[in-house]
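In response to reviewer comment 3 from the previous cycle, which asked for concrete evidence that the modeling workflow produces usable outputs, we include below a single protein chain processed end to end. The sequence was submitted unchanged, and the resulting structure tokens are shown without manual editing.
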Amino acid sequence: MEKKLKVRFAPSPTGPFHIGGARSALFNWLVARHADGTFLVRIEDTDLKRSTKESEENIKDSLKWLGMNWDEGIDVGGPHGPYRQTERLDLYKKEVQRLLDEGKAYYCYCSAEELEVSRKAQLDAGKTPIYDEHCRHLTEEEKAKYEAEGRKPVVRLKVRKDGVFAFDDMVRGHVEFQAAGVGDFIIMKSDGIPVYNFAVVIDDAFMEVTHVIRAEEHLSNTPRQLAIYEALGYKPPKFGHISLILGEDHKKMSKRHGATSVTEYRNMGYLPEAVVNYLALLGWTPKGEQEIFTEEELIKQFSMKRVSSNDAVFDINKLNWINFQYMKKLDADQLYDLIVPFLVKAGYVDAAVSEEKKDWLKKVIWFMKDHIYFAGQAADELRFFFEDMPKITDEDILAIMKEETSGKLLRAFIEDLKTVETFDQAEIKKCFNACMKAQGIKGKAAYEPTRIALTGVTQGPGMFEMMELFGREKTMDRLEAALAYC
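The workflow returned the following structure tokens.
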């Protein structure tokens, strides 16, 4: 009977949760949900110097924010715990001892200096540097001599030299590595901490993981892991190595490309559903032209068969477009709740607002919704509702204001607006149209200087609704102040 599908996401808590890690987690999560399998999350914290509790919490919080709940693992529990590697050291030591007892591993006393001499000699001879097996056949006397010198040994796995380590990758097809190029590698350091490749094999085997989906940077680890599976007598899982996420310059995504962690996108006001939707499209090609997916649609359609081995390029404009589609689905109250914290942070409004101010803010936000691609943009897009007009310095804008028709139109419009009884967009528009007709000025010659007077730019959202939201006093003040440029 075939085992129920089980995948795992096993991050190292050494920094903020990277967007690439989130994509790997998502692919695993989608595979599990599609097959009604198990999604397991464990923490690989054997890098004692760099691992932190803060990073672990950041990873868990980010996964939860993205909606990737897990069925087994850290915090959730399950039959194969504990789920932190530092809490599983006894198990790793037991398995290392078994390999030593069976003659499949051995103690190595070589110093770093001796290993470097051997490595350099191999490189000089045009060979791929691997361990020279100096300690593979030590006598008991030789071991005692090294230990008397105070040398603390590591443990190396005996790796066969013949044949290949081969597997069928879910993304890359058949992959082979020559066994002769692997060499006897370390499986446990001198401090008793297992190396990554050993611990991950033990964990995957004992936790009954059936499929390992991870970034292609782990591809080179696979022959060593297969050697460990072989030595221990465990059946290896099915592997799938997904491409790296690159910046738009086709180099590995880093800080120079902008935000790289999930937390940064969360703090910028992106919606988790949009981030998930976008990450799913980084390397996975759905059937047809559909680009916006509900969670249910992603789960139903996702397949590793449609995951490309080509590098995925992170396009912030595409993410913004997808996020914009999700924001358009929000109602006025949801949009208000999403955006107001950013206005508070900018100092434009207080955290506690009156009902009257709240009603006005809600209208302002709804009015500007088609110009906000993610909530973090809101403060910049809405700034002319809260800040005084900055001095106009742009030469092209100043040239428009110096046109004879600009001053003529603005002066007439200011006088006409004084007679408007109900200051709403319908009455303002009627007044403006009448003013244009009376002055014989229309089109850009009328609209551009008016909009510049209100916002400092020539394009933007509906001008008459904006004036209604500004109110009579602010509108008149801005129109009159603009006359100084005419």
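The mean pLDDT is 95. We consider this sufficient to address the reviewer's concern, and the full set will be provided in the supplementary archive.
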